[in-house]
Write a structure and sequence with these properties.
- It is a single chain.
- By secondary structure, this protein is of the alpha+beta class.
- The chain folds into 2 domains: about 80 residues, 2-Layer Sandwich (Phosphorylase Kinase, domain 1); about 140 residues, ATP-grasp fold, B domain (D-amino Acid Aminotransferase, Chain A, domain 1, 2-Layer Sandwich).
- It has 6 helices and 14 strands.
- The strands form 4 sheets. Strands 1-2-3-7-6 form a 5-stranded antiparallel β-sheet. A 4-stranded antiparallel β-sheet has the order 10-9-11-14, covered by helices on one side.
- A hairpin with a 2-residue loop joins strand 12 and strand 13.
- It binds guanosine-5'-monophosphate.
- Guanosine-5'-monophosphate (5GP) binds next to strand 9, strand 11 and strand 14.
Length: about 240
């Protein structure tokens, strides 16, 4: 497969056309950003740690009946994916109160959310990703009511699967953000699932094992990403 023209460059990934119909290549770059791009760095190997974790988690989800865009890895930072018509929603599933819901609502950090809380933001950098509700999503024609119902159902299934996998490695899945797209009539998981898009706490120590280490300068970001990638992929290999 040959990499062709750039289709899209985001803050941490670039997506390329290929010479194969409806297949794209996603490059996981070493760029890391936080606070709406207000904090930026380049950290060596970050792209490959996130790509490795994303690939393992996509494969694990697919084995468990979740449709994803994942096809294969070309090398540690280049992933072949099926082309989707992306839906500009950031679907966030929360098992424990942390991050923006603690800042914006009267939740105490660390409170268990049972059942999990789904929050959906509008993926729109210029508007700073405002939170949506079902009526707004339908009124803006971002998704139909049937698609929205399916997205929420799949997001909760993904949550159950990831929560169990990570718990077996002594990691609490606090929350995570996923994005979906359409492939024909079906809804398919796209984008990535990595230390950039999940909030992970060590069950024993409570230590952050994700991008919060970068956001809040809690320690060596790449040492953390490396360690977490090994823990997660070890657990996925067993299943
Ligand atoms: P919060 O709303 O607390 O900032 O984020 C909730 C969860 O979604 C966290 O795991 C966070 O990493 C993820 N998340 C929220 N917005 C984004 C985003 O724009 N990009 C990425 N990669 N993850 C996000």
């Amino acid at each position: 497969m040959k990499q062709k023209k750039l289709l899209y460059a985001g803050k941490a990934k670039s997506v390329y056309h290929t010479d194969v119909d409806r297949k794209l290549i996603v490059e996981f770059r070493d760029d890391i950003t936080a606070f709406d791009g207000g904090k930026k760095d380049v950290l060596m190997n970050k792209g490959s740690y996130n790509a490795e974790v994303s690939a393992f988690l996509f494969e694990y989800l697919m084995k468990n009946g979740v449709k994803t865009h994942f096809v294969s890895m070309i090398d540690p930072r280049h992933m072949v994916v099926r082309e989707l018509e992306m839906i500009p929603l950031e679907v966030i599933v929360r098992n424990v109160a942390a991050g923006s819901i603690v800042r914006n609502y009267p939740f105490k950090e660390g409170t268990k959310l049972d059942p999990p809380v789904i929050v959906i933001d509008f993926k729109d950098d210029a508007r700073h990703d405002p939170m949506l509700n079902d009526d707004l999503i339908v009124a803006l024609k971002l998704a139909s009511p049937a698609e929205l119902k399916k997205i929420k159902k799949v997001a909760l299934k993904i949550n159950q699967l990831l929560f169990a996998l990570l718990a077996a490695q002594g990691i609490t899945l606090v929350d995570f953000k996923i994005e979906f797209g359409r492939q024909g009539k079906s809804i398919c998981l796209g984008d990535e699932i990595s230390m950039d898009s999940m909030r992970l706490w060590d069950k024993k120590s409570g230590e952050s094992l994700d991008k919060d280490v970068y956001r809040f300068e809690k320690g060596d970001v790449m040492a953390t990403y490396n360690r977490v990638a090994q823990r997660i992929t070890k657990s996925a290999k067993k299943r």
